[in-house]
Every structure is written in structure tokens, then in C-alpha cells.
Amino acid sequence: IPAVRTHPAVTGPYVAVSLSDTGSGIPPERLNHIFEPFFTTKEVGKGTGLGLSQVFGFTKQSGGEVTVESEVGEGTTFTLYLPRVSGASRKPADTVLPDILIVGHDTRVLVVEDNADVGSFSVQALIELGYLPILAANAGEALAELAKDVDGFDVVFTDVVMPGMNGVDLAKEIRRLHPGLPVILTSGYSHVLAQEGTHGFPLLHKPYSVEQLSQTLNVAARNRHGK
To answer: How far apart are the first and last CA of the chain?
Structure first.
């Protein structure tokens, strides 16, 4: 594997798979961000920013690497370097997760996200971390869920940029209707928050890691219950 980003070159039996296109190319200033979760240049609701981050995660988990070469106006080439293995099956080593990942303990989370792909990704990640998430597609659905059983949730995790009522206004309404229920905001659009501010609600910037997500939700839930 050639030297990539901060990692030195690695020697060994690898298979390289390259995929090229003849599209518009990627500007140099964006090349260092394209593998970040939730990074996208598409309009709100048009892209999740999860595709390349999943490719990156797959190659890393496989012990490989992915590189990208691009020229604006000419096209882009992605190359995946995957370790070559023998035909003999190997028992995967047990993975020991850091303690910070195992902190859900049935904490009930209302996830508010209008993009179905991002919502599904967040819910699945929370389930794997030991949380009990419920997905609401917009602010109206979220308020309806809370009206039915506000005691059924320990924390609300909402995107900021949504059609209709945005996440900041939703958080303010939850604070008015259900004082004491913590609300965590998340967004990758800093200009929106620069205009409106967070009104005192904690913000988890996209892209965020599963460690950051778990820690933020756990702290909010524990503070509510005085633990």
C-alpha cells in the first residue's frame, strides 16, 4: 500500500481495485473531506454523505486502504487496496470495543431526521450501542410521539436543517412543553447555526464519530436522571 494521508507505506500481498469515471472531478480542497461521514456537496435532502464513508470503513476494517486521484474537468479514480488472503477460512478475532461505546444501557432516544437514509443509519448505530431509538421524520412526528408518552424518552436527538419546523425551533418547543427533557442538536451546516444560534442546546457537529454520539447522548440522559 502506498503512503496515504498520515500512514506510511505498507508492504505485503495486496489486491488493488481501481474505479475511474470521466465526470467533473473533485476540487483539491474537498479531497481531504470526501470520506468524512455526512460530508456532501448536494442540496439538503439530496444526499446523505454516507456512501464514501462506508467505503472507507469497509476498507479499513478489512486491513486495507483507499486512495483517490482527481482532476477537475477530467474525472476521478478511486483505488481500493485489500489484503490478499489464502483460501483457508480464518476465525475473526474477537473485537473489544472501548467502554465509551457500551454506554447505551437501554437509554430511550427520539431521533428526528427527515432524510430516511441518515435516519436509518443513526438508528442502527444507536441500536448497536445499546440504545432504544425511535425515528421521527419531522418535527410534527416528534411532537406527536412526545405527546403520546413523553416519559418514554430520555433524550431527543434532532437534526437542525429540516423542512417545515427546523431542529432549533423544535428544541425550543420541546423545552416549553416538556421542561427537563434534554435535546441534542446535530448539523453539518454551520452557516445556519451562525445565523440563529443554538439557544443553549448542546450541538454535535457533523461529521461525528460513534464515540462522540454515544458520549453526548449518555451525558444528557445521565444529567436528566441526576446520575
So the answer is: 47
Ordered domains of the chain (ranges, CATH): 14-83 (3.30.565.10), 99-224 (3.40.50.2300)
Please name the amino acid found at residue 197.
Answer: G
**Amino acid in position 5:** R
* 172, amino acid identity: K
Q: Look up cell 508492504; give the residue.
A: 11
Q: What is the 3-state secondary structure (H, E, C) of the chain?
A: CCCECCECCCCCCEEEEEEECCCCCCCHHHCCCCCCCCCCCCCCCCCCCCHHHHHHHHHHHCCCEEEEEEECCCEEEEEEEEECCCCCCCCCCCCCCCHHHCCCCCCEEEEECCCHHHHHHHHHHHHHCCCEEEEECCHHHHHHHHHHHHHHCCEEEEECCCCCCCHHHHHHHHHHHCCCCCEEEEECCHHHHHHHCCCCCCEEECCCCHHHHHHHHHHHHHHHCCC
Q: In this structure, are strands 155-159 and 108-112 parallel, antiparallel, or unpaired? A: parallel
Q: What are 170-210's pLDDT values in tens digits? A: 999 999 999 999 999 998 765 556 556 678 899 888 777 77
**With 90 as the cut, is the pLDDT of residue 39 above it?**
no
pTM (predicted TM-score): 0.57
Tallying the residues shown for the chain, one arrives at 227
- For residue 44, the model assigns a pLDDT of 58
